[in-house]
Amino acid sequence: MSDTGPVAAPIKRHAARPHRTRGQHRASWAAELSPLLAGTQRRYTAVVGSAVAGASIVAMATAAGLPSGEEPAPSRAVDDIAALAAEASVPETVASGGSEGATASPAGAAAAAAEAPAQSERTTPVTGQDAQIRWRPMLDQITITSLFGQRWGRNHNGVDFDAETGDPVYAAYPGTVKHAGWESGFGNLVVIDHGDGVETYYAHNSALNVAPGDWVDAGAHIADAGNTGFSFGSHVHFEVHVDGQPVEPLGYLSEAGLDLR
């Protein structure tokens, strides 16, 4: 033995994990997981989760082996895992200097959130529009030749519009064709049921373009004007019925947004 005393044996490092030494105590959980967590934030959840599960199993096994009534000693492994989990849960942020990969502290994140300007209210390029379904004229050119009311000793239940034979006649509102055919003094008649007890009549047509049961939209070409039935010239006789009773058409259409007067 020399005067300098015994020579300490060199420490043998683990080839794959230089932070571990052979023949000595096991490295802490924090040291084991630090290389895995460094630069791999996307995988930290799986790594830390597995480690927490392992630490929990160790803790339970230790508790099971203790005598009844004896409290287990605090586990360093559990403390290490809790610290790593708290560190890894901090979201990735860009440092104030612009470098990537920097991790902000919880206090710094809270301060940044407090200083951030309030988000502006969301806006939409879609603007409000009027209802798309509207009453529309039943002819391209509207010229009134006879009004609703008493005529020749009896009530005239509609309004007459001047039209040439063959002029297109349009549905004033969407609905289902209730009648399309010959009807006594009306001649070739189209009746459309618009729902809610409202029906419209188009009489004296020379030709019909729809059949009972057809659905028509507002403005659909339903017939051609004519001089059929009890008529003294080519025209369109138009009526509005509400709950089975004829009403004054021009007033009803005006209240519905279509003024033909």
Automatic annotation (TrEMBL):
Record organism: Glycomyces terrestris
Kinase as UniProt keyword: no
Alphabetically ordered keywords of this record: Signal
Residue ranges constituting the M23ase beta-sheet core domain according to the UniProt record: 155-249
Leader peptide range in chain numbering: none
Biased composition (Basic residues): 11-25
Composition skew (Low complexity), residue ranges: 95-118
Designated name of the protein: M23 family metallopeptidase
Cell inner membrane in keyword set: no
